[in-house]
Amino acid sequence: MKSVYLDMCCFNRPYDDQTQPRIRLETEAKILIQESIHSGRCKLVWSAILDFECSKNPFPEHKQAIFQWRRLAQAHILATDPVVAQAQRLGALGIGQYDALHVASAMAAQADLFVTTDDRLLKRCLKAVPALNAHRPADALAILENWYEN
Questions:
Q1: Which pTM does this prediction carry?
Q2: 134 - beta bridge partners?
C-alpha cells in the first residue's frame, strides 16, 4: 500500500477559485486521493508542519475540515532534529522554510508520493531531491490508480 504526503497547498486547493480549470482539476484529483486514503487503499502521512500551518489558517471551517484528515494518518512525523537538519539542507538548495519542512517530513516518512500544487516547489524538488517522487495531484492519482501500468 502506497503512502502519500499531501502538502498544505493540496489541502487548501478546494478553497481556491474553482472557475479556473487547472484548480478545479487539481481539486478533483486531490479529493479522489483523499477518497483512496479514506477507503484504506493508500496511507496518509501527516507532519508537525501540517499541524502548524493548519493552526494558522484564518478560516475556522477550513481549519476544521483539514484537521479531520490528521486522525486518518497512519504516520505522524515530528519536527525532530534530523527532520529540521534535512529541511535546512533543502533550504540551502532554494526550497522555502515551510516547504522544506514538508519535503523533509515526507522523506523521513519514506512516503511513496509527495503531492503539491506549488509549481515552484515541484520544480525545485525534481531538481534537488529526485528520489522524492514529487507530483501534482492528477499525476499522483494516476500513479495510485495504476492508470498507465498496461
A1: 0.95
A2: 114
Termini Cα distance of the chain: 19
SS3 138: helix
Superfamily in which the 2-144 domain is placed by CATH? 5'-nuclease (3.40.50.1010)
Q: Using an 8 Å Cβ cutoff, are 28 and 4 in contact?
A: no
pLDDT tens digits for 128-143? 998 999 999 999 999 9
DSSP 53-92: HHHT-S-HHHHHHHHGGGGG-SEEE---HHHHHHHHHHHH
Q: Rounded to an integer, what distance in angstroms lies between the CA atom of residue 37 and that of residue 60?
A: 23
What is the distance between the alpha carbons of residues 14 and 108, in angstroms, rounded to a whole number? 27
48 to 39, 84, 102, 110, 123: CA distances (angstroms): 24, 11, 9, 16, 24
By residue count, the chain amounts to: 150
Only one residue has cell 497547498, namely 9
DSSP tag of 146: T
140, 117 contact by CB (below 8 A): no
Query: Are 18 and 58 spatial neighbours (Cβ–Cβ below 8 Å)?
Result: no
